[in-house]
Structure formats: structure tokens, C-alpha cells
Design brief:
mainly beta; three-stranded antiparallel β-sheet; 1 helix
Length: 50
């Protein structure tokens, strides 16, 4: 996921967020055949100047 900081110290800089986690059977959930009770992920946040 990417975006731009809109205010504060890093205003105008680019933000990159990366979520890394185990695979889940999300197809059952999206097909209405089951649920995903939780998903745990490692998250990396990167802010870079343009």
C-alpha cells in the first residue's frame, strides 16, 4: 500500500506499508462459506522523501 503524508514533519513524502503474514483460506470467507477469525502480520512502514 502506498500513499503521501498530508501534514506534519514528513508532509509530501511517500509512505509505503508492507504487510507480511501467513496465507489464510480467505476464499471461503469471500465466498460466504466460512470465516477468518484473525490474521497476524508483520508490518513495515517506510517513509521516503521525494
Amino acid at each position: 500500500m502506498t500513499g503521501t503524508v498530508t501534514s506534519g514533519l514528513f508532509a509530501g513524502d511517500t509512505v509505503i506499508v508492507t504487510f507480511t503474514g501467513p496465507a489464510t483460506d480467505i476464499l471461503l470467507c469471500t465466498a460466504g462459506l466460512g470465516t477468518v477469525s484473525s490474521v497476524y502480520s508483520a508490518i513495515a512502514l517506510e517513509i521516503t522523501s521525494v
